[in-house]
Hints:
- This protein is of the alpha/beta class and 421 residues long.
- The chain is built from eight helices and 26 strands.
- It folds into three domains: 2-107 and 239-306, FAD/NAD(P)-binding domain (3-Layer(bba) Sandwich), CATH 3.50.50.60; 110-234, 3-Layer(bba) Sandwich (FAD/NAD(P)-binding domain); 319-420, 2-Layer Sandwich (Enolase-like, domain 1).
- The chain has helices at residues 10-22, 44-48, 64-68, 127-136, 150-161, 182-193, 292-306, 377-385, and strands at residues 2-6, 27-31, 70-73, 77-81, 86-89, 94-96, 99-102, 106-108, 142-146, 165-169, 198-201, 206-211, 217-221, 226-229, 231-234, 238-240, 256-257, 269-271, 276-279, 286-287, 319-324, 327-333, 344-349, 355-361, 364-371, 419-420.
- Strand 21 and strand 22 form a beta hairpin.
- Helix 1 runs parallel beside helix 7.
- The longest helix has 15 residues, at 292-306.
- It starts with a strand and ends with a strand.
Amino acid sequence: MRYVVVGLHAAGRSACQWLRKASPAAEIIGVDPSPLPVYSRPLISYVLAGEMAPPGMGVADDDFWNRLGVSVLADKAVGLEAGHGRLLLKSGQELAYDRLLLACGARPRPVETAGDAAGEVCFFRGRRDLDKVLARVRPGGTAAVLGGGLVGFKLTMGLLKRGMQVTLIVTSPRPLSLNVDAYVGQWVGERLQNTPGVTLLTSTSVTSIDTGTDKPLRLALDSGAALDVDLVAAGKGVLPNTGWLADSGLECDYGVLADAFLRSSDERVYVAGDLAQAPDIVHGDRRTNAVWPVAVEQGRVAALNMAGLRAEYAGSLAMNAIPVFGSRMISVGLVNPSLTRGCDFVDVGTPRGSYLKLVFREERLVGAVGLDAPPRLGELAFAVKRGLRRRDIPAGWLANVQNAAPLAAPGGALVGNARFG
Ligand SMILES: Cc1cc2nc3c(=O)[nH]c(=O)nc-3n(C[C@H](O)[C@H](O)[C@H](O)COP(=O)(O)OP(=O)(O)OC[C@H]3O[C@@H](n4cnc5c(N)ncnc54)[C@H](O)[C@@H]3O)c2cc1C
């Protein structure tokens, strides 16, 4: 049996480990243009912030693939003839396979308004992006960060720690609008506004980016203002790497469509990670949830199915936990206000305590967002997966946490006890 795994990061690496467990004697070939050393992508934001040295990103030594018995080809997949079981590589090599896993992730969403200055815009996806950003960092210099999601937020805080003056430009009315509820988004926005060195521009778009005269780059904003900066970095979401699969015969939508066994429309081809548009627990449709634990779990499930061990995928779930201004911010499942219409909420918070919002749909937990709240991310994710009922909320979740970030009660509504409805 020959397994070929395209992409050796979170999903691909997890899959290789499970393939090896399930098929000790099988041939496993991994294809990735940048396979060594094995590192963790999320950690690039810690290196940018100066909180970690680059070697700290490593999660395995250079002998990792050897020990696992995976032959690694430092090559790029450029075409797939799924009907013939053939993968085409950039080097010209053709690889036949019995089972193929596509785990080639996603790339940053491009900045359409960059025009001729596009090459100067930095992204923040991997080690090369980190190097490009660091090469442009100047203590006392100015930076514009485009995009108010988690990557934009991490870029802003990292550049600030490197001594730059940062303007964060967000098209939504508040940062993290897709990741948390309106209350926590507002809270983060207020703290950003009050952070020396940060300017937050909400409901603002960049209309063009050009090379500048006073500074390397000049941004024109839809407000009519112009901004001269040393560095532009964009974190405006990602797009699955599906381009090279256009003629593959696989069914693609936003990502590569996968069934409940993470099998694509071709029975020999499986998908996992940021590339996979797979069943989602709370939405009930197929979508991508581009987070590390989802990629790792999908890699596991896909590998077991590739090895002939029937493993049904429970479905993916958006989840995040990040430190924000000294507080622990967590979010799971449905929390984006535009997606929670018709849901019921349980809010808990105190003026000097923690905040937790639990989102219920038809009495079942479908999402949660918290600041220094008692439940851990894993507990909340597990509760959403098993459809926790409102009457079964663990009492400990509703307790206040001492020394948590102070919260101003929104509209005076949150004053310490659970509010239902
Ligand atoms: C700055 C940053 C911070 C993040 N923070 C968090 C976090 O805190 N928590 C969290 O859960 N998630 C976080 N994420 C998201 C997480 O890193 C991704 O969800 C995860 O890396 C997805 O894994 P993947 O294996 O599907 O894809 P990727 O990590 O994108 O890996 C894909 C691999 O495929 C290879 N590849 C691409 N195209 C080809 C091709 N044609 N042929 C061969 N190989 C190819 C690439 O070289 C790469 O090695 C963060 C991401 C970033 C960028």
